[in-house]
Amino acid sequence: MARRRHKRRTHLGANNGSFNNLSAISSASRAPKTMVIRAGAGEVGSSVSQLVKDVRRMMEPGTASRLKERRSNKLRDYLTMAGPLGVSHLLLFSRSSTGNTNLRLALLPRGPTLHFRIEKYSLCKDVQKALRHPKGGEKEYLSPPLLVMNNFMSPGVENASKSGVPKHLETLATKSFQSLFPPISPQSTPLSSIRRVLLLNRELPSSEGIISGNEEHHYVLKVRHYAIATKPTGLSKGIRLMSAAERTSTEWRGKKDVPNLGNLSDVADFIVNPSAAGNGFTSGSESEVETDAEIEVMGTHRERIHKKPRNTVQEGELKNQLRATPMHKRAVRLVELGPRMTLRMIKVEEEVCGGKVMWHEYMHKSMGEVKSMETLWEARKREKAERKRVQEHNIERKSRPKTLGRLDVEGPEDDLAADDIGSESEGWNGAGFESED
User: Fold this and answer.
1) Number of Cβ within a 10 Å radius of residue 72
2) How many CB atoms within 10 Å of residue 241?
3) For the chain, the helix, strand and coil percentages under 3-state DSSP, each to the nearest 5
């Protein structure tokens, strides 16, 4: 009799379903998820559409990278589907009638919403054309980037200027951007999973410009996206080429893996001067990097296995040798991936793409106007709560069983009919004739 087949690849209840897999799935479900949307698809233009694709690429893996928008889609459609899908942030790109490109960052499900104007931007393809050796691959996008934020909290007095951004709104913007990506724990996060860096740099306005009242941008962010590239240091170029030829068997930069040493009498000549195998000149890029760009990393599992002694040794000595992991020095450099954006915050709203305006760059109100607006918003909230209560009452009334509703309606009529029958029965005797009394 044939053995029963057990599905192991798609069912968690199989033999290979372990607690680690379940914990990984639960942690992935708690990770923030984003949706990058073109508001008014087809009306923003080809450049903004490509910018949306690049931002989706930058936000991977916790984003809907294959989202397709339609012109008929409204904001309410995305908000309806955001809850079941576990979406925590919305990034909406749009273009105004005056030609300005705008970005709205909304936190779900209750807000707030940060409105930005994109003053400048560069696409990924433009950034890669400007680089001499661009870097690209799929491994960099398997894990979220490392978020680096600079100058998000401005120094000085809290209310230094009436047109400046208040401290509590600066804290709100900081937490909004921090919640875009899952937090990184230095103790548990493996170093190999950090392959990208997302840099957010805020340009603080000068104190002279604020005091003199000149036109300056009070909250300007510059967005940069980099890939982390490392290479071993402390070794000559010849040794690095030989080690690279050992690790891979494919072609490297259009040449064979093993350098051509046919013109040399000894391999030591190549190690001392790698350019001896070529034209005899050494480029300036072969110089060592600065010491502040060097880090120490642990050796790989493969290197630890190679360090295992071949002969028979005691168990304790073997464990000590396996525990002694080799350390390597590597130079770290950043290669820009794109896109580039310069964002200027215009206003902050209390709810998702609506609600009370908490801060505006151009409009400034007095204390009396602020109090009147708060009174107006409180009245609107009470009206909204009353409408919601009435709607819930109507839904509950309509969802009652029909039999109960019929009994409630026909109850008084049945009582009236019973009274009529009783009154008529009082005027009749048992023989069916009316008595003269």
Assistant:
1) 7
2) 20
3) 40, 20, 40
Rounded to a whole number, what is the distance in angstroms from the first to the last CA of the chain?
A: 97
> Which one is predicted more confidently, 343 or 297?
343
Residues paired with 349 in a beta bridge: 113, 357
What's the distance, CA 344 to chain centroid?
A: 20
Tell me what pLDDT residue 325 has.
53
The predicted pLDDT at position 268 comes to: 74
Contacts of 142 (CB under 8 A, 6+ apart): 61, 195
Angstrom distances, CA of residue 431 to CA of 422, 427, 434: 17, 12, 9
Quickly count: other Cβ atoms within 10 Å of residue 256's Cβ: 10
What mean pLDDT is predicted for residues 142-146?
93
Q: Does pLDDT of 27 surpass 80? A: no
Most confident among 87-91, 283-287, 322-326 (mean pLDDT):
87-91
Q: What is the DSSP letter of 435?
A: -
Question: Phi and psi (nearest 5°) for 354?
Answer: 175, -175
**Tokens standing for 234?**
């402390």
Could you tell me if 226 and 339 are in contact, meaning their C-beta atoms sit under 8 angstroms apart? no
Dig out the tokens for 313 from the structure. Answer: 């040794």
Tokens encoding 255: 């040449």
- Pull the structure tokens for residue 190: 């493996």
CA distance readout (Å), 300 to 192, 281, 400: 10, 34, 67
Position 202 scores a pLDDT of 94
Whole-Å CA distances, 233 to 23, 190, 393: 38, 22, 72
